[in-house]
Design goal:
Distance between the termini: 56 Å
Shape: globular
Order of helices and strands: EHEEEHEHEHHEHHEHHEEEE
Largest sheet: 6 strands, parallel
CATH architecture of the largest domain: 3-Layer(aba) Sandwich
CATH superfamily of the largest domain: Crotonobetainyl-coa:carnitine coa-transferase, domain 1
Helix content: 25-40%
CATH class of the largest domain: Alpha Beta
Length: about 300
């Protein structure tokens, strides 16, 4: 119709991904790539399918909500890699695809005879991305990993929770999901190299290293002041003070923070009572004592 905005061309419309992954980290990666136009074909185990098909309730009709939310924009086939016919079918697909994504235990693809070294003979431009708990090399390579294990091993749990607590798991499966994001980022970079050289690459993504990447600020702070980080609730060491406060009004909570020496005001007319929340000047380096609120500010804690 006249005046309609033409549909936007998605950046990965010409990219074909063969997704051998299961559970969360790998499927989360391929889902993001599919959202940007990639053609994703999921390869499942004959008869059983992805393990996440059994992770319910809740359900959408007969499918688990966990599985459904991770597999939009995808097609699914079954291949038995233990049979020669299955392996040959896989390599024929490899010849036509751009990316193979997998998160089997380290060494499984070698045992099945479908590892990267064999695949790139059939297609020098193929990109393999492997997601594992601790990477394809190193002393922990053979260890299985779950999100909770990696959150603990990385130290993420040790800084999550209320002050004085022993730490808690993050509210979402952050180790799995961040690994999926890093995998998508690595695949995008490998595709860019392929555009320039015509050659594929092997991308090795570690869940543990993904968490350590998120903790770079915490690690950097420890290296600077030698103070072992601990749970701080909703507070934040870089901006002191910053935390929610319990107001006298029952219908809402306030959040307040000190970020710099400037100030800003936010009218709160939506609360049917007008006041101004003003940022306080930051205290000098080395001090953790906040300056008093100005007379134009109102405190609810």
């Amino acid at each position: 119709m006249r005046g309609e905005t033409p549909p936007m061309q998605l950046p990965l419309e010409d990219v074909k991904i063969l997704d051998l992954s299961h559970a969360l980290a790998g499927p989360f990666c391929s889902t993001m790539l599919g959202d940007f136009g990639a053609q994703v074909v999921k390869v499942e185990v004959p008869g059983a399918g992805d393990i996440a098909r059994g992770w319910g309730p809740p359900f959408y009709n007969t499918e688990t909500a966990y599985f459904v939310r991770l597999h939009r924009n995808k097609k699914s086939i079954e291949i038995d890699f233990k049979k020669e016919a299955g392996k040959e079918l896989f390599f024929r697909l490899v010849e036509r695809f751009d990316v193979v994504l997998e998160n089997y235990r380290v060494g499984t693809l070698d045992k099945l005879g479908i590892a990267y070294d064999r695949a790139r003979v059939r297609n020098p431009g193929i990109i393999y991305c492997s997601v594992s708990g601790f990477g394809q090399t190193g002393p922990y390579r053979d260890r299985a990993a779950l999100d909770l294990i990696v959150q603990a091993e990385s130290g993420m749990i040790s800084i999550t929770g209320e002050p004085g607590s022993r730490g808690v798991r993050n509210g979402v499966s952050i180790a799995d999901m961040v690994a999926g994001m890093w995998a998508a980022f690595g695949i995008m970079n490998a595709l860019r190299v392929k555009e320039k050289t015509g050659k594929g690459q092997y991308v090795d993504v570690s869940m543990l290293e993904g968490q350590l990447g998120l903790l770079q600020g915490t690690v950097g702070a420890y290296m600077a002041d030698g103070v072992v980080p601990e749970p701080m609730g909703t507070a934040y060491k870089a901006c002191c003070p910053i935390r929610p406060s319990a107001p006298k009004l029952k219908s809402w909570r306030s959040l307040w923070a000190v970020t710099n020496s400037g100030g800003f005001s936010v009218p709160s007319s939506v609360l049917k009572r007008c006041w101004t929340i003003r940022a306080m000047p930051r205290t000098p380096p080395g001090s953790r004592t906040a300056r008093p609120l100005s007379k134009n500010s109102r405190r609810f804690f």
